[in-house]
Amino acid sequence: MSATLNHSVVAAIITRLAGVLHGLIDSGTAACASPIGHENVLAFLAERRVVVDSLVVVLRNFLEPEANREPLKSHLDTVTAGARVLASSVTSLVHFRDMNLGELQTATESVNRSYSEVFAALRALTRAAGISVPYLESPPVGRAEHYQKILLGLFDTLWYEREKGAREPQ
Fold this sequence. Notes:
Layout: H1 4-32, H2 38-62, H3 72-92, H4 101-129, H5 134-137, H6 143-167
Helix pairs in contact: 1-2, 1-3, 1-4, 1-6, 2-3, 3-4, 4-6
């Protein structure tokens, strides 16, 4: 990938993908605990999943033909799988009120693990492709802490909401 245009376009696509994944964490986890209704949350998350899948396809196309050679292929495959697992895992949290303790623990661990994996793969991809992506390399102060706080407190927050809902009169 030698053209400057391709580097800047790929950097923009990766930035957008990372932003959508962060948005999925922010709004997806908040929506799960909101009273807006499962159907609305599921529709919103389905739209986000389509955006994620589309950005991954566009990213792969812009990285052709290198996208089929190592190490880019491995990184792209990890980004693709990780983004889908993250979106799926956040979507599964919509039903957290019906989950038992073990199921909720597994679901929140899946969100944490897939988040870490997909962002590590995005960073590895940019290094391997020689692309600078400021969104990943030098995030604003507090962004990493913000997402770590959400992810580390996700289980406790949803379990609390589940228990609170079980105690409230219907």
